[in-house]
Amino acid sequence: MRNILIKISYDGSYFHGWQIQENAHTVQEEFQSALYKIIGEKADIKACSRTDSGVHANVFCISVKTESKITPERLKGALNHFFPLYMACLSAEEVPLDFHARYSCKGKEYVYLIHNREVRDPFLKGRALHFYHKIDVEKLNKAASYYIGTHDFTSFCTQDLRKMEDMRRTVFDAKVTREGDMVKFTVSADGFLYNMVRIMVGTLIRVQEGKLKPEDIPQILEKKDRAFAGPTAPPEGLYLNKVFY
Amino acid sequence: MRNILIKISYDGSYFHGWQIQENAHTVQEEFQSALYKIIGEKADIKACSRTDSGVHANVFCISVKTESKITPERLKGALNHFFPLYMACLSAEEVPLDFHARYSCKGKEYVYLIHNREVRDPFLKGRALHFYHKIDVEKLNKAASYYIGTHDFTSFCTQDLRKMEDMRRTVFDAKVTREGDMVKFTVSADGFLYNMVRIMVGTLIRVQEGKLKPEDIPQILEKKDRAFAGPTAPPEGLYLNKVFY
Fold it and tell me: Most C-beta atoms within 10 A of its C-beta, which of A161, A197, A214, B241?
């Protein structure tokens, strides 16, 4: 038995997220289908996270336990052969047997892209949120800085049945920067709750609109109530950017 | 009667080129359909060129003669409202009545993108040619320099029924540059023959492969025979980038 860590990248606009579902095209389905063609065996696969429909991955990690003797380099080439063109295998490497793409993960970095100019860019359809009014990057960066640290992020989590879980997460860094017309929110943490980055972005947009002040963020965190944060920003601007092990 | 110059941009992977065809989705069809919804009249429209299926436009120019009294700024906003998200109106301005998007054009600039790294980028599907082997930019730039000047470009034109036309064109500039993994061929000329840029790129690829030398380009031009140039590069890397008036 060997354990292989596979890093892939994909354009999320083609997928209904990672996890296999009936009647929906998912990353897991494409991945398993390609893998089966190569190693002829239904391998035990573990993914670093589930991504939602429309969310992109600059990098996404999967660990595969297999009896196959294929070299990681050949596996990478074969996956790229069978994957659709909107998906790619970036690397494959052998890792210890106790490595688990999800449980061994020490943190992740997400990026959210906001294209900030008057006219939309046709080449960014499905790849960034288009925002018409000029964004005050300095103000939003100030707001983002309040996300840093260990907090209960209940206010930044879409309610689901996982209410029993620990809602505390440690945000290592959170910043808003601009490159030309593109405003980028970059956030890294030891873990993320459901829709956490998208609600962080929706809250930053409320700050941009003047409906919230940067200094309101600590109180929103303290409320532990989803109703006090901004809306959930659309998925198309969100990219899983780094996975830390 | 007024004449309005409209600049648009579109992701060519969604279209079968500019010109209206039966049973194919074209830019002209989307443009005319949006315009009709706004001005309620079948206006006389002239385009700067026909682009082929899969070819992109960072900018594409259309002149519209209309009786409508709509301001250019409102027309721009309305077009963006009715256009699909993979298409945008960049600007609209009133121009003299004798202005013609095609005949008034003094030249154009095209860019061809080659993504040059081992693994493809899923976000560049349909947007760049993927080339695995490391490209020698200096050598290709040398080859491209031979395109500059006034030449008969018969060798760089897909044969069609337009054989009567003058095959001489003046290339103002032609260069190959690299930004990270992206190799870019930029060429400007007073006009382009059918498939001219794509055959120029196919020929540069033959130079990269060592099947041609940069110094062979002048002889290929002199042959005035399509058979001596390289293949026609695929449309997905090609962008109409500038239109000069």
Answer: A197
